[in-house]
Specification:
The complex is a heterodimer of chains A (431) and B (260). Chain A is an alpha+beta fold and 431 residues long. Chain A contains 14 helices and 14 strands. In chain A, strand 2 and strand 3 form a beta hairpin. Classes of the chains: A alpha+beta (431), B alpha/beta (260).
Chain lengths: 431, 260
């Protein structure tokens, strides 16, 4: 009998943030159906933000994600400042960048070492990997720790920091505190350079695909807090035009909405940022990459781990630059005068574009809100990638191999399922 | 001797409290020498039904599946510790308990019927017997490690019952309520964070939840005297820890209060 049907399912995906599952049906050595199901319970943030004041929003949205609270706070505060017609000082601009550098190091450091690297070196977890590769794990954890220190410098704690407000920061760090962090960053910079080279030397699959990269682009900065939304296919729009080009819809098997660009899947995150903004990186980063065999832009999703390492190295260089020029400001924030209106905030979370839209009334309270996190934007791309990757890998592999390969593909995206609202269970059904 | 077994479970949450483990850095490797981490999805091991000595629970109960899953965890765990505002009080998402969940679902999802959710988000202790609760949004590493060391040494963990105010005074911070008229929640909030908000000159927003024996009625008067409206005071109680009984009661009283 040649007709064969197989139902493979991963009911819980490990080493991702949140709760997701993958359902895969194979008939006659072809994928009959494939669904990435995010079953993170809905928390309904967009509704309970209604009736809240601007600074309550900044504290509330941090709670969407424990790993990237700074991103949520930044997109929200930019949106509010847009509505209240506030303009920030160069000091605040720099400190927000510094804050973001900390979060990229924290999130990428965690992803590379605890979530992704065990795949490439064939270990079930970082604990097992640390026995054979102690220097790699120690280096990673050290860089991750520096990210946490930087977040705490400005936010007092790394999970749900309390330092940021609409218009800037509640307080400016003391120059002596900045100097302590700066000294450690300078001392540790060679470790980040090593990290880039190590990640580029990993046994990464050679598999290229056609996909569209989308990120912010800024006239002269590597994008974090500001810029236009661009793609490598010619998209170039203001953040207020997001809705006209990128549309969210619900699929019945997932609690996270899926977002498409002109009806098609697209990629956001470190690889997309690097693909679109390679020329915005300082020469020191180019020099290190010249010594590696990987070139950007790249259409190989397995290069994501290298992109994250590059961004850790860049974040350290940028943090050092900002901290070296640090002076205490006359005021750490600009005053706030509420007014009614609609505003947009879009910043580069560690996992990619994070778009917020708020409407406020004259009393300064939220009347409506919309939040589009990076994982909902990547969701359709992950499914598209899985279809191609699994066909390319060969569906005749064992269930265990298919499961591992699927998980590796998914982890390239560092899906933050809590944000999208998280967890992988693979279900493979075949006959 | 066999190593003690621990599990870290996630329910409805932001993942922030389990980061107290992942942010341990190299100490996480030391911890893994001393205990067997048998279930911790984000770190790798998956064994949701494993028998363990200590189970740490992050997140609230907000779906029918969660309601059932927590029962199995109780059966399989010698000692259950809940961590964070979601697990101990339902979390910020418990604001749905005061709203209309079905209407909210319809406003966000085109086909809400395909998503299984409860109308409420509730604390773990509403569903099973909990042996120890660690408050805070988020909890921190010191709290977690202290609890684990106690249980492993066969003593009940304890936590300070002080209010943020006391911690703030001990640290020598200037009172933001007295000097700047900020509506600081420190007088009614459980300690443990390190009085972080006053350290940057801002009012505490009560993310560690109500302290023991809080006089919310008198505190409400204080906030009124600073010029806050009833609605503004209610929002301060009904925020991150909105479903913690003392805050819920104080907040709802203000919401339903008749205009003079």
């Amino acid at each position: 009998m040649t007709d064969s049907f197989k139902d493979l399912s991963i009911p819980i995906i490990a080493r991702v943030e949140g709760e997701g599952a993958l359902h895969l049906q194979i008939r006659d050595n072809a994928i009959q159906s494939l669904a990435l199901s995010i079953y993170e319970p809905p928390r309904l943030f967009e509704k309970f933000l209604e009736g809240r004041s601007a600074n309550e929003v900044v504290d509330a949205v941090a709670r969407i994600c424990g790993i990237c609270p700074v991103a949520y706070q930044m997109s929200a505060t930019h949106a509010v400042e847009h509505i209240f017609e506030m303009s920030i000082t160069p000091w605040i601009h720099d400190m927000r960048r510094l804050f973001y550098c900390g979060e990229w190091m924290e999130s990428h450091g965690l992803h590379i070492h605890l979530l992704a690297a065990p795949d490439f070196l064939k270990y079930p977890s970082v604990i097992a990997m640390a026995k054979d590769h102690p220097e790699v794990v120690k280096r990673g954890m050290h860089l991750h720790r520096l990210g946490l220190d930087l977040m705490s410098l400005l936010g007092k704690r790394s999970v749900h920091p309390v330092g940021a407000c609409v218009g800037g920061f509640y307080a400016a760090p003391k120059p002596s505190a900045v100097k302590t962090v700066l000294t450690e960053f300078k001392r540790s910079l060679p470790l980040a350079e090593e990290l880039v080279q190590w990640s580029a030397s990993l046994p990464l699959a050679k598999s290229t695909q056609t996909f569209t990269s989308v990120s912010l682009r800024h006239p002269h900065e590597y994008p974090m807090n500001a810029g236009r939304i661009v793609s490598d296919q010619g998209l170039d729009i203001d953040i207020s035009e997001f809705d006209q080009h990128l549309k969210e819809s619900q699929v019945p098997y997932s609690t996270a909405l899926q977002c498409h660009l002109h009806g098609k899947p697209y990629l956001v995150g470190p690889l997309a940022r690097l693909n679109l903004n390679f020329d915005r990186l300082p020469s020191a980063v180019h020099t290190v990459l010249d010594r590696c065999k990987i070139t950007f832009p790249t259409q190989n999703m397995f290069h994501s781990i290298v992109a994250r390492s590059v961004e850790i190295y860049y974040a350290m260089l940028e943090a050092i630059r900002i901290m070296e020029n640090y002076v205490e400001p006359t005021a750490p924030c600009v005053p706030l005068t509420p007014r009614a209106g609609i505003g947009f905030g879009c910043t580069e979370a560690p996992r990619g574009l994070l778009w917020h839209r708020y409407a406020f009334n004259a009393a300064g309270l939220v009347t409506s809100s919309r939040i589009v996190p990076p994982t909902s934007q990547n969701q359709a791309r992950i499914e598209e990638d899985l279809r191609q990757s699994l066909m390319h890998y060969g569906l005749d592999h064992s269930d265990a191999d298919l499961r591992l390969h699927s998980e590796m593909v998914i982890r390239n995206y560092d899906p933050c399922i809590s944000c999208s609202t998280h967890f992988l269970t693979l279900k493979v059904k075949r006959w | 001797m066999e190593k003690p077994r621990i599990a870290i479970h996630k329910f409805t949450s932001c993942d922030g409290c389990q980061l107290a483990f992942l942010h341990l850095g190299e100490d996480l490797l030391d911890l893994a020498e001393k205990v067997d981490i048998v279930h911790f999805v984000e770190m790798g091991p998956i064994n949701p039904l494993a028998k363990v000595d200590v189970a740490y629970i992050e997140g609230s109960i907000s779906t029918p599946e969660e309601k059932e899953r927590i029962q199995h965890i109780r059966t399989n765990s010698r000692y259950v510790i809940t961590i964070g505002a979601c697990a101990t009080a339902g979390g910020i998402q418990a604001l749905r308990n005061l709203g209309n969940t079905q209407e909210w679902m319809k406003a966000i999802y085109a086909t809400p019927d395909t998503i299984s959710t409860l109308n409420t988000s509730t604390a773990i202790s509403d569903h099973i017997k909990v042996d120890f609760e660690i408050y805070g949004c988020p909890v921190n590493t010191q709290q977690i490690l202290a609890s684990l060391l106690s249980v492993l040494n066969k003593v009940n963990p304890t936590a300070s019952k002080d209010k943020v105010c006391l911690e703030c005074k001990r640290l020598g911070y200037t009172c933001v309520m007295v000097t700047k008229g900020e509506p600081c929640m420190g007088p009614v909030t459980h300690t443990g964070c390190g009085a972080l908000c006053p350290s940057v000159g801002r009012a505490c927003y009560a993310c560690y939840g109500p302290a023991e024996n809080t006089n919310t009625a008198s505190f409400t008067q204080w906030l009124s005297s600073l010029g806050l409206s009833d609605a503004e005071i209610a929002r301060r109680f009904l925020f991150i820890q909105n479903n913690a009984p003392a805050f819920k009661e104080a907040g709802l009283k203000l919401r339903t209060k008749k205009k003079p």
